[in-house]
Amino acid sequence: MSSDASALQLVLSADPALMAIVGLSLTVSLSAVGLAALIGLPIGAMVALLRFPGREATIVALNALMGLPPVVVGLAVYLLLSRSGPLGSWGLLFTPKAMVIAQAILVTPIIAALSRQTIEDLWVEYREELAALNVGPFRRVATLIWDARFSLLTALLAGFGRAAAEVGAIIVVGGNIEGFTRTMTTAIALETSKGDLPLAMGLGIVLIAIVIIVNALAWIARRAGERFAG
Amino acid sequence: MRAPASDLPIVLDNVRYAVRNVTILDGVSLTLSPGAPTVVIGPNGAGKTTLLHVAMGLIEPIGGRVIWGARAHSPPLRRAFVRQRPVMLRRSTAANIEYALATSTVARGEWPARVTQMLGLVGLDGFGARPARRLSGGEQQRLALARALARDPEVLFLDEPTASLDPAATKAIEDVIRSVVARNIKVVMSTHDLGEARRLAGEIVLMHRGRVVESSPAADFFNNPKTQEGRRFIAGELLV
C-alpha cells in the first residue's frame, strides 16, 4: 500500500493513537489561544484607547513580537520551568501546561497587535457617542471588544493558526513524549525523521482539515452574527 | 432618595475654545434656561457644534467657565446629546436603548418598560429586535433620540438632527422633538435650516465666527432682528 493510501486509512479508521494526538493538539492550541485572548485583548484595547509615553514604541514592539521565533520562546520557557529555573518548583516542564504557556506567549502579541488596530478604528467611531453617554473607562473597553467581536474573530483565528502550526516551542518544553505531550506537529516532525510517512501524512491531512474547518466555522459564525447584530 | 441637582440654568461665561491656534469660540456668554427650545443658528464653521459640546461638558474651554445649575463640575448624568450622524452600537435596537439605560439611574427592573416606552415615543414600535445598523438614516436618528431620552435627561442637545434627512424623516424627528418639549425637557439644538428654526425655536442664538451675535426670543428675532448679521441671515444672504 502506498503512503497516501495508508495515511487515508489511518484517518478514516479514526486510529486511536492518531486521535489521541489530534485531541491533545487541539486542547493545547485552543487553551493557548484562550489564555492569549484573555491577556492580549485587554492589552490591545488599552493601547488603542490610552495615550501614554512610549505608546508608539509599544505598538512597534507588539508588531515585532508577532514574529517571535518559536524555538527562542521554547528556550525561554524551558529556562523558566527547568528545575534550576525560577519557576522550576511548579513542575510544569514536559507537560501539556508548559506547551500551553509557550504557545500563549507566541499568540498573545498576535492577538494584542491585531486587536489594537481593530479596536482603535472602532474607538474613533464610538468616542464621542460613549462620552455623551457618560460611559466609564472599563465599560468602554468591554463595549469596544464586544462590538468589534466579529472583526476580533480574525485576530483569534490568526492566533489559532500560529498555535496549531507551531512546532519549535512545544517540542522544547513538551519533549514530544508519546501519549503525553506528543501533538500533531511534533509527531509529524518525528515520524518524518523516522521514515514513518503514512502517520506523518495522516496527521498532516488532519491538521490541514482542522484549520480549514475552524476557519469555516468562524466565517459562518461571523456571517450569522453580522446578520443578527448588524 | 434625594433628587439629583438640576443642571439648569447652564451659564457660559466668556467661553473661549481654539484648536491649533484657530479660534472656534471667541468669548461666548450665554444662559440656557428652562423653557422653550433654544435653537442655535449660523453658517457652517460658526461654532454651533462646539458650543453644544462645551455646554454638554464634552470638551473643556480654554478660557472662561461653564456653570451647570450653580456647579462648576457636573457629570452629564441628566444631559444627553444626539449627533448629526449618530453611531449605532452593533446590537439590536432595544439593546442600544438598554446600553444607555445602564449608564443612567433607572433601576434595572424598569428597563423593559422603559425600552417599550421609548420605542413608542419615537415611532419605532416593533423594531426592538432589529439590528440597529440596519435601520434607515431617519430611523437611526429616532433611535438615537430614544437612546438619549431613555436616560431621563433634563437637557437634550441636538446637533443638526435633521441635516441629512429627507422631508418625511425630518418631520418625524421634529414631531419627536415637540413631544420631548411637552415633557418639560430643555432642548438646545443647532441647525442652519431657518425653516426648522422658525418651526421649533422659543429662543434663537445666532452665531458667527465663534461669537454670539444675537440672542433673543424667536418671534423677536424673526420679526425684528437687532443686528445686521441677523437681518442678512434671515434674508438668505451668505454670512462669510
Give the topology:
The complex is a heterodimer of chains A (230) and B (240).
Chain A: H1 3-12, H2 16-49, H3 55-65, H4 70-81, H5 96-132, H6 137-147, H7 149-165, H8 168-174, H9 184-194, H10 197-229
Helix pairs in contact in A: 1-10, 2-5, 2-7, 3-5, 4-5, 4-8, 5-6, 5-7, 5-8, 7-10, 9-10
Chain B: E1 10-19, E2 22-32, E3 38-41, H1 48-56, E4 63-68, E5 79-82, H2 93-101, H3 111-121, H4 137-150, E6 155-159, H5 167-182, E7 186-191, H6 194-200, E8 203-208, E9 211-217, H7 218-223, H8 228-234
Parallel strand pairs in B: 3-7, 3-8, 5-6, 6-7
Antiparallel strand pairs in B: 1-2, 1-4, 8-9
Explain what you see.
The complex is a heterodimer of chains A (230) and B (240). Chain A is built from 10 helices and no strands. By secondary structure, chain A is an all-alpha fold. Chain A has a single domain, classed as Orthogonal Bundle (MetI-like fold), CATH 1.10.3720. In chain A, helix 3 (55-65) runs antiparallel to helix 5 and helix 5 packs antiparallel against helix 7. The relative contact order of chain A is 0.16. Chain B has helices at residues 48-56, 93-101, 111-121, 137-150, 167-182, 194-200, 218-223, 228-234; strands at residues 10-19, 22-32, 38-41, 63-68, 79-82, 155-159, 186-191, 203-208, 211-217. Chain B is globular and about 50 Å long. In chain B, 45% of the residues are buried. The mean pLDDT of chain B is 92. The interface between A and B is medium-sized, with 18 and 26 residues.
CATH superfamily caption of chain A: MetI-like
Largest sheet of chain B: 6 strands, mixed
What's the number of structural domains of chain B?
2
- How many structural domains does the protein architecture of chain A include? 1
The CATH top-level class label of chain A: Mainly Alpha
Number of helices of chain B: 8
What is the CATH architecture annotation of chain A?
Orthogonal Bundle
Helix and strand content put the structural class of chain B at alpha/beta
